[in-house]
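Trying the structure run again after the queue cleared.
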Amino acid sequence: MKLVIDIGNTLAKLAVFEQDNIIDCLVEKEINDEKINLFILKYEIKSVIISSVRGNETFKMLKKYKLLHFSSVTPVPFKNCYHTPETLGLDRVAGVVSAMQQFNNSNVLVIDMGTCITFDFITAKKEYLGGGISPGFEMRFKALHHFTGKLPLIEYDKTQNNIIGKSTVSSIISGVYNGVKNEVEGAIQQYISQYPDVKIIVTGGDKKRFDLEPKNRIFADEFLVLKGLNEILNYNDKIK
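Done. Tokens:
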């Protein structure tokens, strides 16, 4: 069994894989040796991969295991055409690897609606071309408050989500929600116009807030990054 650790901007995830299947998963704001030890005591872990966007995380409990610290120089099963691979988010790379595995020999667009909204495109020839990054859903509420003198910091309330906001709060909600929805759907249409056969996978914590179109082209996968990290671990085991 393998232990996959994904430390993102907002949340950290632990997952135990048996081959390609997740058999246990923990999602927390922070993880530590104690939480990792609970998994180690419960399962026969053979190898571990750690991916962190926060920095080089070290855990004493993992020193005795076959450990892969995922970085920009870790081998991956695609050709990376990104001009600055050293600055490419590790979560973006993992999402692409998972998408490529699920839709082999297809053009695939990965949309991650997390702290930021990211778009990542890989061709049917396994060439990663790049994508886009924009502020995430919650980040937009914070930005409106931070960069203005009077706009309040609010939390999303779907009961006040109408196209015509009749108060400052509902106007902010309308602007942020519909701005994100129209942005993502607009990007999808642009990709479809260039790559009519493109497959689209959406992941990230905010994906559940949006009913995106076209529904028949979009697949949701909340464990996309974890699956990609597991595949990267498998790939590196094979080539060594």
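Residues 140 and 176 are 7 Å apart (CA to CA). Worth checking whether this holds up in the mutant runs.
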